[in-house]
Amino acid sequence: MWNGDGGTFVPVLPRQSAVLSMSNPTYSAALAMQARRELYERQLRERLERREHPPTAIDEAVTRLRASGLLDDRRVARAAARVEAQVRSRGRLRVLQRLHALGIAPEVAAEAAEEVFQGIDEEDLLEAAIGRRLRGASPRIRDAAHFRRLHQQLVRQGFAPSAVTRALKQRWKGELDQEA
Description:
Order of helices and strands: HHHHHHHHHH
Strand content: under 5%
Distance between the termini: 76 Å
Oligomer: single chain
Radius of gyration: 24 Å
Low-confidence stretches: 12-21
Helix content: 55-70%
Largest sheet: none
């Protein structure tokens, strides 16, 4: 809609249905939250509680959203696991830890991580992480202390300690062979 001064455009946003808002304001608030950003159940419940919606209305809204498929912790867990693994280059253990921290049920988190890591070669992911750690002025493992620091960093990133040790030893051995 154009403003009366002739030059300013003022967007008219669709209003929420008055009937929906009046009949169940908790459901309307939950629906609006889900429309902005897909939330997992615990996160949605916490936000509704902060806005002081009654617990029974929150339960009803969550049940309704779950039944309609708009609230799905499995879908959110898969998306979060994919971001952690593919974008942030985290290992399986760190992905699981992140999903647990988000409040996703352990069995759902394990299922999501398993699904995401089926399509990812963890050794390639580990090699890429090592490569990022070793770039710069001295792109090699300098000494045993540097080896230990790299090992600790990569384990904190969620890679299995045995896989990290094996990959770092292989890299270090290759560097020693090149120097000889």
